[in-house]
Amino acid sequence: MNKAQFVELVQASGNYKTKVEAEAAIKAFTEAVASALVKKEDVSLVGFGSFGASLQKGKSGKVPGTDKTYTTKDKMVPKFKAGKGLKDRVAAGK
After folding, report:
1. Is residue 50 within 8 Å of residue 42, measured between CB atoms?
2. Which distant-in-sequence residues (6+ apart) come within 8 Å of 14 by Cβ?
3. Terminal Cα-to-Cα distance of the chain (whole angstroms)
4. Contact call for residues 45 and 84 (beta carbons, < 8 A)
5. Which residues pair with 77 in a beta bridge?
6. Burial zone of 22 (CB within 10 Å; 0-12 exposed, 13-18 middle, 19+ buried)
7. One biological process GO term for this chain (predicted)?
């Protein structure tokens, strides 16, 4: 599903009158979650899941086929953990 299709789905699910309103709602949600994660705050939506930020340790490795090596630095990465309600709905939709 691409963004335009998702906007149409949100419009129908949320009873928005226009696609512009639905797209604004999606943008507001994603901006709010991103802002919370930047502040290292978790966002929990009961029945849906939780968004969080966690530290990913740096690593070193070798580029296949060459003698070159690389190292990455520690960084914060976003994580999502699905809630029981979401898991149950997806499993029932098989």
Report:
1. yes
2. 22, 25
3. 18
4. no
5. 54
6. buried
7. chromosome condensation
Residues, the chain: 94
Q: pTM of the entire structure?
A: 0.79
Helix (H, G, I), strand (E, B) or coil at 39: coil
Bridge-partner residues for 82, per DSSP?
A: 49
Provide the pLDDT for residue 93: 85
| DSSP for residue 15 | T
The DSSP output letter for 83 is -
Is 24 in contact with 46 (CB distance < 8 Å)?
A: no
Encode pLDDT of 8-31 as tens digits: 999 999 999 999 999 999 999 999
